[in-house]
Amino acid sequence: MKFSKFVAAAATSLSILATTAVADTDRPVVGLVMKSLANEFFQNMMVGAQAHAEKRGDYELLAVGMQNETDFESQINAVNNFITQGVDAIVIAPADSRAMVRPLKRAMEAGITVVNFDVALDAEAKEKQGVNLAFVGPDNRQGAKMAGDALALALGAGAKVVIIEGNPGADNANERRLGFEDAVAEYNLNLVDSRTAYWETEEANTVFANMLTANPDIQGVMAANDSMAIGVVQALEAASRDDILVVGFDNVPAAKALVDEGKLLATIDQFGTDMAANAIDLAIEVVKGGPELEGWVRTPIELVQK
């Protein structure tokens, strides 16, 4: 498939992040669809994907990201644009686990290899659409349980805790909430509130500030990603509270710094810098005639503490 050196890959609501293309080449073209580039996790993922494309040098990378965590319409537009361009593969971290199934089905019907990574597509929606797609990503429930366990061990039974949830339309948000709830049940914590902040720092700051006003005796916070954990830490600093423990998920550099400073008890590293790159490797293998991916291709997670 021949592409010009630079290919327009998105509607106006999307941001073109990278192209590593050379004119008149038969190298496969991979469309990478990520979530919000306001999130440091996906910024790092973009860096990893760019470095990977340069290192391999045998494929073109077209990458797009959303303006915010709930802007799944931009992802739909990106997939449709990649279908029109006739890319060889689409590698996607869906913002909404149900809404993205139909557009990806269209891509598959167009002969495009699709790899779902980071956030799993909804099993019921896939079955309804007759879509059989493997998932490449971590065990989000286990990771959240690990972070919740660390918080529970530090606080002890009966401690009052809250959960700051991610976007309820995303599978990983639901899995992380369940993982935190597993830790609450196992260690007999007292869960006094659980609300979504849609993965966003400012939203988490506001949501948690309201939680703290309603429950000033909160002892611990489980945040479903580091962006929200950072918002919680900011709210605690504004309230001059240093007696409440917080855990997050992602191990972005800003959160790792907070762990080192003792402002964040723990986070979960899911090795986001490598995640898209690894999914791209799998997609290219299929494009070149390798076997279709099946089931769940698990990627590593690790608890990070000071």
Question: Your description of this structure?
Answer:
With about 300 residues, the chain is an alpha/beta fold. It folds into 2 domains: about 15-140 and about 270-300, Response regulator (Rossmann fold, 3-Layer(aba) Sandwich); about 140-270, 3-Layer(aba) Sandwich (Rossmann fold). The chain is built from 10 helices and 13 strands. It has a 7-stranded mixed sheet, with helices on both faces. A 4-stranded parallel sheet has the order 8-7-9-10, with helices on both faces. Helix 1 packs across helix 10 (about 270-285), helix 2 (about 70-85) packs parallel to helix 3 (about 100-110) and helix 5 packs parallel to helix 6 (about 170-185). The protein starts with 14 loop residues before the first strand and ends with a strand.
N to C succession of SSEs: EEHEHEHEHEHEHEHEHEHEHEE
How many structural domains?
2
Strand content: 15-25%
CATH class of the largest domain: Alpha Beta
Q: Roughly how much helix do the residues carry, as a percent range?
A: 40-55%
Q: In one word, what is the shape?
A: elongated
Which fold name is given in CATH as the topology of the largest domain?
Answer: Rossmann fold
Average pLDDT works out at 92
Q: Report the sheet with the most strands, covering strand number, pairing sense and barrel closure.
A: 7 strands, mixed
How would you classify the helix and strand content by structural class? Answer: alpha/beta
Arrangement of strands in the largest sheet? 1-3-2-4-5-6-12
Multimerization state: single chain
Radius of gyration: 20 Å
Distance between the termini: 49 Å
Question: So, the CATH homologous superfamily of the largest domain?
Answer: Response regulator
Low-confidence stretches: 1-24
Number of helices: 10
